[in-house]
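Revision sheet: structure tokens.
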Amino acid sequence: MGIIALPAAATPNEADRVIGVMAVEADAAGPAGADEWFARQRLFPDPTVDLASNLSRARGHAKNLQAGHERGALQAAASWQSLGPGLGGRVSDIAPDPTRANTIYAGAASGGLWKSTDGGVTFAYSWGRDLPQGVGAVAVAPNGTIYVGTGEGNPGSASYSFPGNGVYKSTDGGATWTALGLTGTDRIGRIAVDPNNSNRVFVAAAGKLYQPGGERGVYRTTDGGATWTQVLAGANTTTGAIDVSINPADSNAIYTAMWDHTRTPAGRVYGGTGSGIHRSTDGGATWTRLAGGLPASSSNLGRMGVAVAKSDPNRMYVIAADTPGNFLGFWTSTDRGVTWTKITSTSSLSSSQSSYGWWFGRIFVDPTASQHIWVPGVPMLESSNAGGSWTSNGSSFHVDQHSVAFDPSVANKVYIGNDGGVYRSTQNGSLGGTWTKSQNLSNMQFYSVGVSQQDPTRINGGLQDNGSVRSWAGWGEYYGGDGLANVIDPTNHLKVYACSQNGSCARSTNGGNSMSAFGSTTSSRRNWFTPVVLDPTNPAIVYYAGDRVNRSTNSAGTFSVISPTLTTTTWGTVSAIGVSKSDARVIYAGTDDGKLWVTRNTGTTWTDITAGLPTRYVTRVTVDPTDANLAYIALSSYRNGSSVAQLFKTTDGGATYTPISGNLPDAPVNDIVLDPQNRNILYTGTDVGAFTSTNGGANWAPIGTNLPVVPVTDLETSVSSGQTVLTAATYGLGIYQIRPTSTPSNDFSLSASPATATVNQGASATTTVSTAVVSGTAESVTLSASGLPAGATASFSPASVTAGNSSTATIATSASTPAGTYTVTITGAATSATRSTTFTLTVNTVGGGCTNTNGTDVAIPDNTTVNSTIAMSGCTGNASATSTVEVHIKHTYIGDLVVSLIAPDGTAYVLHNRTGSGTHNIDKTYTVNLSNEVRNGTWTLRVQDAANADTGVLDTWTLTL
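Predicted:
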């Protein structure tokens, strides 16, 4: 949330200490915040785009590209280095580990999960690099299993949040993670684990923010996440669950807060008739919407939160906001939610929620004192008398509170998570006591980065809710608000520029020790991230744009307007400016409503050069330093299944365009820059990482290694000791830097599809091995395989291909190949490079070893069908092609009988069909090909007497798989 005061000048100080006047946001008809900026980029012009599904696909593509380039020759590639800073950014949830002393987990809004093993003094990244980085909820079970819900449940306004793809768990303290499904939930508000059963978990799924429907509501698992059941759906397609709490004295008593809310690029409705508190007293089987003094269903009922006191399970609390986000009320119950008493509101309680109560909506109760509670808001509030009176934290820690946690192994130790990281108290969470901030929490959300051309370690950048910061002063904040555009003069790194939201900018000539506001500019409206660009030839010339472009010739001291309104909508602004180095008169301007313009006379006239480009938000225009007519245009938004590119190149100043997205993941492109030592090498930052191309955008590859699949919002280049240095701003994991090593002149990529197969012993699996040219020219690639199990062989047809072509790989097992799962490495070797990909092969045992008998007699009445079952468990793989069914039936006339074996998946195999007229009884073993059936499960022998006048008995039957 952008609520930090905006100083005209500031001296160095810690970023998290700047607390002041709240910046009030526009109302629901058109909020002027980062979420509007975020949404317009990704949803314009198609608001029906499913952000989560598209992001998940793009993340998978990025993961595959990275995997293909971390093997073979690129194992020696340069590695990204995290530069922090460890100031601590937005923390959505905190959970202590009851089985590991001093171990705390902090969920970052867009930076994964962080772990402390020293009681919250320091934190380290403890999340999968390829997993969704947005975390909404964290819970640790009594046995130490960690459950994480991805996708931040707090929908942004003056900040933005990324959706997730379900729930993950770790049973080894966060070292490895397993996906548990619920992939369509998008955003998870809270997770509650049964205190008596670590495998029984409830998830509050808020659902998609921009689209109705999908997976939302309350979900339950009783087997540790192997399967899920939706136990409470919303009252309508826009209602999900945002909070869930289990009564500690009765784990069948569950409480949840349902929230009816939706979002569009231009507005929000954060309340509705579906909002309300619900209770189940039978473990989630049935639910009742609570009344007894709580608000009735209403279009003006917004986000709510619910909590149960551990020390007195009869005591409960509820908080509510109205649809616009104002405080609506606070209630308590002493009879487990049957009746409620509304607490008299105070100014401290109501004002704590500001005008965006949907950003908080939670309550935390001291586990040893039922009337000692905390309510997150802009400040944190504390009450020791169940809400009768309140204490505010004042300015002892960062604003915008989200979570409170109690250390189970250290009395009186309490943790708070907010937009500035994690703080801890050893005085039972007293807001009047001392709080200490944790260190090394590098979950910083950067909008931008600037780098000195004389010293690449000298970096400034703009942070969500933590202002503009600078590395040369301990990453202290030097300009307030939400930090947006940050620039360093390439000829003098003491000259710096910093902006807060909507184009409130300042400049400094002493490295940020003192700041002076920009001179007056002319525009009717300004983007949340207002572009500020220096002329590459004369950096005293500064360009700034709202809906019109402004130009300064004295380092932003004064400005003159050099363009008319360049947008076509009532909300449009200029979002990107590109200035030519070879001809300073040529300036390109892109807008957030899909227009691209150029002037060739420093703004005297402007030409619309949009024709040939799709209507998309323009995020960046980069001009070749040697050719004013050669420019690269980066666009945001998802392609949503279309073939529209996100990167274009023009070589004729905008007369025509060539798409250069190549094999880039289908994700918004946030920046494109050229290598300062080789303008033919391109670097781009996207919502799923950073990529490079050495062949003009025909093919792209990940840059280096060790960069998580995190949004890269800005890239800057510099040169040090003859090496290119690339610096990336990420939205969730701080600043990364790399010195890219040179790629082979002729390079290729390698992939296998499908990447997995399951076969029986003696069978074969095939996969298509595809190659693609990454750079240079196509070379001959010779294919081979390693890591094969015993008794298996691999062959390729053809054995070598020219890069750009494919081959069929056949992996043949033998009857003696041991059952198991194997990672087979497929390698392609060319003259210039060697690349690898992996293929996962699972081999199942075939034949015998899995037998069971049902000896219970089953009567076969006349003209009736009967069933007898055998449950197979502990077997592996599929059944044999020579499986047997031994059947013993006493019957006077077997010509009346139809006998079938029913597999667990319902497939029927007829063993006997009214044959053998005149004979009695069946004592026979049938051989059946069941190689397509999984062994484990319930098998059924079905016997039908299909004619009149006789009866019989199914004595016994034996199944051997």
